[in-house]
Structures are given as structure tokens and as C-alpha cells.
């Protein structure tokens, strides 16, 4: 069997050869880098997985029901479960989506739910990603390469196969497809951080990888322009472009990434879009606070998976607690993502604490505060030595006729021994996630 060091180096060389990279925009510059793979897998027992799976299905079902409700009847607001201000002040809320119900009433077809495991063994949800969650391709290709360089690894361990992710995506596309039209993945292009994933999933799922110029809307119907300008009806678009850039006539007028009049075709039910527009209102970090209440409201059940203990400065009691305990909390800007806008009170000096105090007092809706979860460290290879680093798990939940959880996931880890932030955009790495069959 390959040594761990040799396996790591070989897999990373293969991935570099295949162009498996992660792109980052910072300071107006685009930089591509290898997303480093660690050979020691995260192993999740069958017993643990059953609880995680049930909790994820429950959570995503409630979030889909919330999205349908919030853009239509708004019962959860009328009943006082979520303050109206939290909906309409969310940067992810799109007034243009009012009254629109997507094909088969599914809003979040592909949900990326970020979890950590506390040191007492409990799994805790840190974040819901319902817009364009990325990262599934990395464990897929890493597993494929590992099979090549160390084929005995998966013969000797009863691990769920993770090669079915593209099949799950294709089934979700088939389920919501309008009039059996073409199925496309819409990419903003190679300068997107996840472009490798767009092209990889299109190939594996057997669907078309399309750029904005490949699509045209005529008579509120979307067409794909193929060879010799042949036009074919599009039934479903798995979009990898942010809402605001998706249609320059409906949102950001300067966008060159979107398709003019796509919103009209979508609103009229002539094309399905995965994930639906306007999903950002449900993965707003402020709305996260209310997800356990959503589960009770829509499903009549207690949440199986818990949130991290969270405080909303919007509420006076919570604000008072946060301001009195800043040094022991983590403060998050609800509009940021990718590990940005996350501040640990223990790392701030007096000037920084005074500044964040002022911001919380003047813009309470902008912030949440959480108790710091001392989640488990996992072993990684640092050079030729084993060391421990903080790691999370992004689980992928697919919603179609029924909600399913992919028997794999993206385990990310920080390479900084003192950091709790594991995001790839912050320079972290990833490892395979083994879900055990028994």
C-alpha cells in the first residue's frame, strides 16, 4: 500500500495535471491555486451518518417550504415567527421573485450544509448554502485518482461509493425539466473560482456546459444556440452565476455574464432554474437563527441537528449579552461568505472591540454573534508529519421527488494551526469523506 506521503503527493500531481484548481479574486486580481488534498480521510460511522442524514433532510425540506412561503403567503411572518424586517432587509431577498413558484415547488435543488463535530461528538450546523454551493467535484476527483494510485484502499474498507453525485444532479434536472428541453449548466467562465467544477459536472452528468452567449430568450422561451446557429429549447438551467448577474435586464444592468430576459422566461414557467433565484433570503446568516423554529412551524418536529448557540443583536436582550461578552464570541457579518467578515472577539484589541461595538449598536441587523464551538481537529499530513487541524464538513443535499443526501461530502481543513476558519478561499485544503456502510 502507498505510504500516506506518497499517496498525497501522487494524488496532488494528478489533480494538478487535470487542472483541478481553485480560483480566488482578491484585490481586483484573479489567482488560481491548487486546492491541496490530504490523504487521511475523514471517517463517519454508519450510526452517525444515519442521524446526520435524517437531520439534513429535515432541515432542507423546511428551508424549501420557507422559501415557497416567503415569496407567496408569508405565513411564517404573519404568525410572528420571523420578523418582517428580517425578510425584506436581507441582501438575499429578491422582490422580483414575489409570487413565483418554481417547477415542482423546489427552490433549493442542491443545498450545501456546513457542519462541524463538537468534541462531545454532536454534529452542529454552522451555515446553510442554498444559492450556488460548490465543492462536490473535489472529493469526486480525489476519490477517482486515489482508486488509480491505491486500488486496494476501497477494496479493504466498506465505504459508500461517491461516484453517483452526477447521477443525483442529473435526476434533479430531469425532475424539474420543462417540456423535456435541453439541460445545461450555465457557467460564468474560466475566471470563476469553481469553473473546474462546472465543466467536470457537465461532463459527468452528460449535460451541456453553456456560457451566456450560448443562450437566447425569444418569446419568453430559452434556446441554446448550437453548431451552425441551430436553436434548441432549454428546459432546465443549473446556474452557477449569482442572482444579481443572471439577467442584466432584471438585475445588474452591467452584467456580461447573464442572459437578457431570462427572468421573464423563468417567471412564466417556461424554464426551470437550479437553484431558484431569491434563495439567498434563506441562507442569510440572520435567518439561520430561525431555522429550528422553521422546522417546528412547517414540519411540526424538533430539529434533529442543532445550530451553534447564536445571538441576534436585533433583539435587545441578545444585543446586551453580545456587547457584554464580545471577547468570548465570534461575530459574523450576515452579508459576507467564504470565511470573510468573521471576527473572533478574543483576537481583537481595544480599538477593534470599540469599533465593532459601535457597528453592532448602529446596525444590529447586520450582525450575528455565536459561542465559539471548539470543534474537533482531524489528522492531516504536514510535510512528513501528522498534525491536527480544525476541519468542517460540507454535506450536499439533493431535492427532487424526494430529498436525498449524497453519501460523501467535502471535508475542509485549515493549514493554520491556530485558525478556526477552514474555507478554501482562506487557503485551506480538503480530504476525502468516508461514509461507512456498516
Automatic annotation (TrEMBL):
One Pfam family for this entry, by name? Answer: CP_ATPgrasp_2
Alphabetized SUPFAM superfamilies for the sequence:
Glutathione synthetase ATP-binding domain-like
Tell me where in this chain the Circularly permuted ATP-grasp type domain is found: 41-413
Task: Specify the protein name.
Answer: Circularly permuted ATP-grasp type 2 domain-containing protein
Species, as recorded: Paludibacter propionicigenes (strain DSM 17365 / JCM 13257 / WB4)
Its ancestry begins with:
Bacteria, Pseudomonadati, Bacteroidota, Bacteroidia, Bacteroidales
